[in-house]
Design a protein that fits this description.
single chain, about 270 residues, alpha/beta, 434 Repressor (Amino-terminal Domain), Trna Endonuclease, Chain: A, domain 1, 2 domains, 6-stranded mixed beta sheet
């Protein structure tokens, strides 16, 4: 390759690199904006959580991430409940569903409860005759020692209205109880909350409320989901889900995760 050819190739590579950098910065900005809006947070609130200024945050949302450090971008992504690595690993040019974090937790539950002998139905309608039926995030059902057990699982990515979250779960549990047949039945609710810093702060401030509303031992719920010999608790309970939707965790600890296990015939 001659010198002029190398110069032209180098110049073309630089132009392509700059174009790619602008594209990634714009894509990151859109993802940051959509994640923030999904949480109902202002730019100022998100910027404060990330440790940057609101004007700088605004620049990022407009596609100005090209000069920011990876540490800063990671902090900004975490401030709106996402991960920079997860964003970077998404296929270029593809758009993830807006409710992807919710779907990931539904997928996590479906994988885990297989080991407890549960029949799982995501988005189970509870009033199908209505024009727009309400649905349960994941409905679980199994027969154990002559008793039919049903679990109403609701998933919260962001605790924006805790009172509404409590009422919504109670309402759906009541609906399932009313629809239960004459056979002996056990019906209870389980709330799964994404373990973000914002949600952890909210739960810490309302510790007594959560303890009173969800009296069942979290460890008992985790055992019932993953074992055919453990009965489900008779009272409602709640669990954390990891921010990356890889496992369920007990409140107050990051230990004893319940991880999805590979099906038989699959490589671990």
């Amino acid at each position: 390759m001659t010198m002029p050819d190398r110069r032209r190739r180098s110049s073309a590579d630089r132009i392509a690199s700059k174009a790619r950098s602008r594209y990634l910065a714009e894509r990151f900005g859109r993802a940051l904006r959509e994640s923030r809006r999904a949480l109902g947070a202002t730019q100022a609130a998100a910027a404060e959580r990330a440790g940057v200024s609101q004007p700088f945050w605004s620049v990022l949302e407009r596609g100005g991430a090209g000069t920011a450090s990876l540490e800063t971008l990671t902090a900004c992504a975490a401030a709106v409940g996402t991960q920079l690595a997860m964003f970077a690993e998404a296929r270029p040019g593809s758009e993830l569903p807006r409710d992807i974090e919710h779907l990931r937790r539904q997928e996590l539950v479906l994988r885990i409860v297989r080991h407890g002998g549960w029949r799982a139905t995501p988005e189970q309608a509870i009033d199908p005759e209505a024009w727009r039926s309400r649905s349960i995030d994941v409905h679980l059902e199994r027969d154990r020692e002559g008793v039919r057990e049903q679990v109403v699982i609701e998933i919260e990515d962001f605790l924006a209205d805790v009172g509404s979250t409590f009422r919504n779960l109670a309402d759906k549990v009541t609906a399932v109880r009313r629809a239960a047949g004459p056979d002996p039945e056990r019906v209870a609710g389980l709330l799964i909350v994404r373990r973000t810093n914002r949600n952890r702060t909210t739960v810490a401030e309302l510790d007594e409320m959560f303890a009173a509303r969800f009296p069942a031992a979290p460890r008992s719920w985790l055992a019932a989901l993953t074992s055919t010999v453990e009965p489900m608790p008779t009272a409602d309970g709640w669990l954390w889900s990891a921010t990356d939707a890889s496992r369920l965790m007990l409140p107050g600890t990051g230990r004893r995760p319940a991880k999805p296990q590979p099906c038989r015939g699959q490589a671990a």
